[in-house]
Design brief:
three-stranded antiparallel beta sheet; four-stranded mixed beta sheet
Length: 506
């Protein structure tokens, strides 16, 4: 006698497997059905096989761009079973970033305000909430506010210069990626929290450790983050988090204690936190007429965390790659060192805001570094309503992901001849004018570009000027040539085995 229950169970499983197979097959036909070129996917990772383990996301994005470029204005890739449209044409990018921004204003990042309050920051939030918060925070990143924070930055830069002197005296090769991250941790800790982190003196301070943990991906962390980004509703239902609990607890507690102390003792500082406290208490920023409305403590905490995490990692990596390229090209290093010292001589040796802004060739060096090594190698946008590609019959539904291949565009030989060559003269005013305005996009473009771009560039200028004014950087036997990116570095470019270089007194 056949057990009816026993026969139903395997039949149900077989049915589910067949339905799942058909659904995946349908997903993987997404671009083929529309007649759009795409990179062939495989189950279950789509095109992400090995990403995060054997190769960096940026390497994959660059390879996909090379494979698809020239075939149409857009191409297709797959994150797991989710299709993502890859813009391949710079004129179309203008639609994504500016002309049709009303369709593309969301990044599609994972936000879980209830279980993971630090995830609800300006980089991730969507819709009207993003628009209102961006309006509130924009006055904190004006050139005037940058000048206000500059003196705080310089105080840390002097300690940085002293530390470099010790490195030069020892005449040993130095892992500069870590040194530069400690410098930017101290800068951001001071400018964002008003706290002396002292990471340069003690590399094991809590701020430095928590900064590392923020970008440290272990085990299945990379897959987990990609999963909740692709399937946010499931992630929120399962109470999944973008940030680690100890990182969240540390930053929330530090902020509560710092704000309580400042408010109780009427402490005022020229830093980012002071501006956010003003918004929290009054909805206004001193010197600004607009009443933006108050922000909550949780909103303040999320923005301060973003300022810290994005500020220390992106700037330290930019400086790392710049010094790497300058160590390989000593003539270019000589030229930028000559400019730095000439400008400093005209400003009584002071690394003032105006002096740093006058270092034009240094600015070109930074821009060329970000061309070859864009710290964020791809930008993501998500459609918030159905959209038709201009001059094409391609229509995409609300919720479709668009992945902008920054690293591919920046290393396109048709845009930048001999793209592997480090040549800061690509960024003279004349050469910039002769290129497509969307050919260099390390900070994004349009209304949702990086709000902290001014601060990041200022911090990078000061750090490089402080170092190069007194020291020369040289290659060692441990310098990674060619460059190899760390696969698990949370979507930002970072050298796989650190950056070993030698510091010498000039």
């Amino acid at each position: 006698m056949v057990c009816l229950d026993c026969s139903i169970v395997p039949l149900s499983l077989i049915t589910l497997v067949i339905l799942g197979y058909l659904w995946v097959k349908k997903q993987f036909r997404f671009f083929e059905d529309k007649g759009i070129p795409f990179v062939k996917p495989t189950f279950p990772f789509g095109n992400l096989s090995g990403v995060g383990k054997d190769r960096h996301m940026g390497v994959f994005i660059n390879e996909a761009y090379k494979e698809l470029k020239g075939k149409d204005v857009v191409g297709g890739i797959f994150f797991f079973t989710s299709p993502s449209v890859m813009p391949l044409d710079l004129d179309f990018l203008k639609h994504v970033f500016v002309k049709d921004f009303q369709y593309f204003h969301d990044r599609g990042m994972y936000v879980n305000e209830k279980d993971d309050p630090l995830s609800a920051h300006l980089f991730s939030i969507a819709g009207q909430k993003w628009k209102h918060l961006r309006n509130k925070l924009s006055p904190t990143f004006t050139s005037g506010k940058m000048k206000m924070m500059h003196s705080t930055l310089i105080a840390v830069a002097h300690e940085f210069q002293k530390y470099l002197g010790e490195c030069a005296d020892n005449e040993e090769e130095v892992e500069l990626k870590d040194v530069l991250a400690r410098f930017t941790t101290d800068v951001i800790g001071s400018c964002a929290f008003g706290i002396e982190c002292n990471s340069l003196k003690d590399p094991n301070t809590q701020f430095r450790e928590m900064g590392k943990k923020t970008f440290e991906l272990k085990g299945f962390d990379f897959i987990r983050i990609l999963f909740i980004t692709m399937f946010p509703n499931i992630g929120r239902a399962l109470r999944m988090k973008m940030n680690k609990d100890d990182v969240t607890d540390f930053f929330m507690n530090v902020l509560r204690e710092t704000i309580e102390y400042r408010e109780k003792n009427d402490v005022k500082r020229n830093d980012f936190l002071s501006l956010l406290i003003q918004l929290k208490n009054t909805g206004k920023i001193e010197g600004e007429d607009t009443d933006f409305g108050k922000i909550t403590f949780e909103e303040l905490a999320a923005q301060t965390f973003l300022f810290f995490a994005a500020g220390f990692e992106t700037s330290s990596s930019t400086m790392t790659f710049a010094l790497y390229e300058l160590a390989k090209e000593q003539e270019i290093q000589d030229r930028v060192r000559e400019e730095i010292n000439r400008v400093l001589g005209e400003h009584n040796g002071e690394y003032s805001y105006d002096a740093c802004m006058e270092m034009k060739y240094l600015d070109q060096v930074i821009k060329e570094t970000l061309r070859i090594h864009p710290i964020v190698p791809n930008l993501v946008r998500t459609l918030n309503k159905d959209y038709k590609i201009p001059n094409r019959d391609y229509v995409f539904k609300e919720g479709t992901f668009f992945t902008v291949p920054v690293i591919g565009i920046h290393n396109d030989p048709d845009i930048y001849p001999d793209p592997a060559k480090f040549d800061p003269d690509r960024f003279t005013e004349e050469n910039i004018k002769n290129r497509h305005p969307f050919a260099w996009i390390p900070f994004g473009e349009g209304p949702r570009n990086c709000i902290g771009m001014r601060f990041g560039m200022m911090q990078t200028r000061v750090g490089l000027a402080t170092l190069l004014s007194k020291y020369r950087i040289k290659l060692t036997s441990r310098t990674p040539i060619p460059m190899d990116y760390l696969p698990s570095s949370a979507g930002v470019l970072s050298p796989r085995d650190g950056m070993w270089l030698k510091i010498e007194k000039a």
